[in-house]
Amino acid sequence: MKRFIIFVLCTFFLVLDIEAQCAMCRAVLESEQGQTTAEGINNGIVYLMAIPYILVAGIGYFIYRKFYRKSS
């Protein structure tokens, strides 16, 4: 259980700089001078990608807690 907790904490605290965009968005945003809009788009993509994983993990935790903890 300690390994799992350490793994989860490391996963949350080790952040990688990810840049992902569609081809059209990339072409429009690269032509901009300040690059602040590009950073905002990148952050939005990362947040939108993270939400489903957080929801699935939460549902999995509650299922584990409800069904598998009682049988122990």
Give the % helix: over 70%
User: If helices are DSSP runs of H or I spanning 4 or more residues, what is the number of helices?
Assistant: 3
Number of strands: 0
Give the overall silhouette.
elongated
Can you summarize the main beta sheet?
Answer: none
Strand content: under 5%
Distance between the termini: 15 Å
| Number of individual domains | 1
Uncertain stretches of 5 or more adjacent residues: none
Structural class: mainly alpha
- Rg, please? 18 Å
Average of pLDDT: 79
Order of helices and strands: HHH
Describe the overall structure.
- Keywords: Membrane, Transmembrane, Transmembrane helix.
- The chain is mainly alpha-helical.
- It has one domain.
- The chain is 74% helix and 0% strand.
- The longest helix has 33 residues.
- The two termini are 15 Å apart.
- 0% of the residues are buried.
SSE order and pairing:
Elements: H1 2-13, H2 23-30, H3 36-68
Highlighted features:
0% strand; single chain; 74% helix; mainly alpha; elongated; 72 residues; 3 helices
